[in-house]
Design brief:
binds oxa(dethia)-CoA, single chain, alpha+beta, 33% helix, two-stranded antiparallel ribbon, Peroxisomal Thiolase, Chain A, domain 1
């Protein structure tokens, strides 16, 4: 039987904790609004000199140590991020150099939003299947540096962080039983960052007239779609695996909003006690949210050896992905 799965994982969070009350110094908001609408109480904010590569490196080193490996063992690097180190080349290039791996292939899965890590995990699994490689998968976001701190519709939702996993084929891996993923680009415009691409390139004119950090965002529509797609893809991955919902020990959903998480649990009909939540501590950390939650679940004692874990994520694109892992 194939043992392709997660050999080790880890996370990194910047030390600065920002409370909801602090946000009221920047925008017209309140702890009451943020808590009741999202469940978020605090989030982490990267230091002024801390970049995407810095955070990715820390998470990668933690995952490699957990796997009992070093950078020398890495055969491929995939970085899921919407907040890269520079516009081009990709963050994987910087991470390859920083970790000091051999000159292995590295690439970013950019723009896949909060579904990026689970999508990358699925790609890593196929790569391992193809050539028996050891793949380092990282989800990392430094959203605080690329968002509009004056836009209350979005800024209060996000946090910075990184998480990583080593995917390999070894007897000791947490086996990835199945992954499913999907994309529906017909709704791309209700959660997008438009400026900076070829449709609306950076220019002096744009800088004068546009708020180029703006994220176009229809929260209510994204909310509904997130619940629908995460629930459906969670069911799909269970069906594909021939596993009943009752057999799942722990659900790790993307941490965007406590109400979304509760709605997914309700739609699926799963005991909320089996659904891991840490959005209160870290906010929405985009593609880093699932590996951070995985690491946090282990630290909190919610993830045990032998657990059957269902991960489900949704983000801009729209993209969604779910994975079933036997720990
Ligand atoms: O990771 C995947 C991507 N993101 C998501 O999954 C997020 C999905 N959406 C959501 O989480 C929710 O839709 C939000 C948390 C963004 C908003 O919650 P909501 O219950 O859908 O809010 P609402 O539409 O009922 O309320 C919006 C109102 C507006 O005021 P009016 O027009 O009703 O007077 C906003 O101006 O709340 C106002 N508002 C705020 N008020 C205080 C928006 N942001 C804030 C704020 N503080 N930070």
């Amino acid at each position: 039987m194939s043992g392709i799965g997660i050999l080790g994982f880890g996370a990194y969070l910047p030390s600065r904790v920002m409370t909801n009350d602090e946000w009221s110094e920047y925008v017209d908001t309140s702890d009451e609004w943020i808590t009741s609408r999202t469940g978020i109480k605090t989030r982490r904010i990267a230091a002024a000199d801390e970049t995407t590569t810095d955070m990715a490196e820390q998470a990668a080193l933690a995952a490699l140590a957990d796997a009992g490996l070093t950078a020398a063992d890495v055969d491929e690097i995939i970085v899921a991020t919407d907040t890269p180190e520079v516009y081009a080349p990709d963050t994987a290039s910087f991470l390859q150099h920083r970790l000091g791996t051999r000159t292995v292939p590295g690439y970013d899965l950019g723009g896949s939003g909060c579904a990026g890590f689970v999508m990358a995990l699925d790609i890593a699994r196929s790569r391992v299947q193809c050539n028996g490689s050891t793949v380092l998968v990282v989800g990392v976001e430094v959203l605080s540096k690329l968002m509009d701190w004056g836009d209350r519709d979005t800024c209060v939702l996000f946090g910075d962080g990184a998480g990583a996993a080593v995917v390999a084929d070894r007897p000791t891996t947490a086996k990835i039983i199945a992954c499913v993923a999907g994309t529906d680009g017909s709704r791309a415009d209700i959660l997008q960052r438009e400026v900076g691409g070829t449709r609306k390139p950076f220019s002096k004119e744009v800088a004068k007239t546009e708020d180029f950090l703006r994220i176009d965002f229809n929260g209510r529509e994204v909310f509904k779609e997130a619940v629908r797609r995460m629930s459906a893809s969670a069911r799909e991955v269970l069906e594909r695996s021939g596993v009943a919902l009752e057999e799942v020990d722990l659900v790790i959903p993307h941490q965007a909003n406590l109400r979304i998480i509760r709605s997914v649990a309700k739609t699926l009909g799963i005991d909320p006690a089996k659904v891991f939540v840490n959005v209160d501590k870290y906010g929405n950390t985009g593609s880093a949210s699932i590996p951070i939650a995985l690491d946090d679940a282990r630290t909190c004692g919610s993830l045990h050896s032998g657990d059957l874990v269902l991960m489900t994520a949704f983000g801009a694109g729209f993209h969604w992905a779910s994975g079933l892992v036997q720990f």
